[in-house]
Amino acid sequence: MAPLFIKEFGLLTHAFDIGCTMAVGFNPGVLSIEFPENSFHKAVSDTMEAAFYRYVMPDSLWKLQSWLQVGKEKKRTEAWKAFDDILTHYISIQRHKSEKTMASSDEDDDFNFLICYLTGHEITGPTPKESLIRDNIVSFLLASVDSYSLTLTWFFYLISKTPMVEIKIRQEIKRHLSMEQVEGLQIPSNFNDLSKLTYLHAAFNETLRLFPPFPFELRICTKPDFLPSGHRVDRNTRVLIGIHAMGRMESLWGEDCYEFKPERWISEEGKLIRESPSKICAFLAGPRICPGKELSYLLMKATATAIIHNYNVHVLEGQNISPKNSVLYQMKKGFMVRVKNR
Ligand code: HEM
């Protein structure tokens, strides 16, 4: 097969298809080499950019922009309008479907957040008003889609620079996974076996250390308190958690802190070293730790093994890979690779 040039690698569209399937029960099928324009993606990107400017601009300035409806704030308003339209559409389709299912008392094996909300499932509780359903689903998609796809994108970027890591991942796949043919693609026949991929897990930990999808997080104190360091914080103090900076601190990770070395996560006995979530806090720590953490590793391993096992991925030379001004650690101009069948 002739090499295929893939614009921006397509991992975001793949993650969006998965996220929508979990959230609203529809696969929008935006993963396509034609890369059709997707209004939800654009809305996510504009929201994240506007959120970044809210961090760095004086409050009075972004509030003025919001009042005048100019600049990033205008884009943000348009993005929320797009979320509204898209979600209202999905809610109405799913509402119709759930009413039909209940009327016919057919067995329905659909399981997604939207259907849980609409049917008052015990997981989500009594059906809330539509605006709350919409906000929760948008939050879920914002929290899950980009974080997972960005980690995978940086992972492929990092292994393209360290071919030895890719070789070791291939050896591990060969040792632990049996593959089956599905629609022309070799994929793991038993997803439970993905937990045996210690080296791949370590490579994702290393990716999340160097390129956390949320490079910083903001917390605001509701009452006076002391940080573990002993520093006093007053009510309304803003605390910015430098997740990206922490992943590159010599005092935490040693002199080779800038190097991509999955080996640092593996003990002499070949076991995965479990660091405290307060040290590697890409998923944050404590009560607000990401509820999708374990699922993320599973999804990332499933996608990475399928790609690495079936294809050779070469990064196109001469790209300027630099981060975008956003609360997400995104590549400014995307990521161009050439994909060849193995
Ligand atoms: C590598 C992938 C991921 C990373 C690094 C990540 C990281 C995070 C972080 C840092 C937060 C906290 C945000 C905050 O409180 O300000 C968060 C929240 C959340 N994440 Fe993830 N996430 C990932 C993937 C996922 C996936 C795949 C799902 C869903 C299947 C998910 C679902 C959520 C939800 C629902 C929240 C909100 C929880 C709340 O409001 O307390 N995440 N995530």
Describe the structure.
The chain is mainly alpha-helical and 342 residues long. The chain contains 11 helices and 9 strands. It has helices spanning 11-24, 39-56, 59-68, 71-104, 113-119, 130-161, 163-176, 198-210, 243-246, 250-253, 293-310, and strands at 4-6, 179-182, 185-188, 217-220, 225-226, 232-233, 238-241, 311-315, 337-341. The protein has a 3-stranded antiparallel β-sheet with strand order 1-9-8. Bound molecules: protoporphyrin IX containing FE (HEM).
Secondary structure layout plus pairing:
Layout: E1 4-6, H1 11-24, H2 39-56, H3 59-68, H4 71-104, H5 113-119, H6 130-161, H7 163-176, E2 179-182, E3 185-188, H8 198-210, E4 217-220, E5 225-226, E6 232-233, E7 238-241, H9 243-246, H10 250-253, H11 293-310, E8 311-315, E9 337-341
Antiparallel strand pairs: 1-9, 2-3, 4-7, 5-6, 8-9
Helix pairs in contact: 1-6, 2-4, 3-4, 4-5, 4-6, 6-8, 6-11, 7-8
Main sheet characteristics: 3 strands, antiparallel
Given as residue ranges, the uncertain stretches (5+ residues, pLDDT < 50) are none
Order of helices and strands: EHHHHHHHEEHEEEEHHHEE
Helix amount = 40-55%
DSSP summary, beta strand count: 9
CATH architecture: Orthogonal Bundle
If you consult CATH, what is the topology? Cytochrome p450
- What's the average pLDDT? 87
Give every kind of bound small molecule, once each. protoporphyrin IX containing FE
Global shape:
globular
Percent in strands: 5-15%
Measured on Cα atoms, how large is the radius of gyration?
22 Å
Number of domains: 1
What is the distance, rounded to the nearest whole angstrom, between the alpha carbons of the first and last residues?
10 Å
Number of helices: 11
Q: CATH superfamily membership, which one?
A: Cytochrome P450
Major beta sheet, strand line-up: 1-9-8
What class would the helix/strand composition place it in? mainly alpha
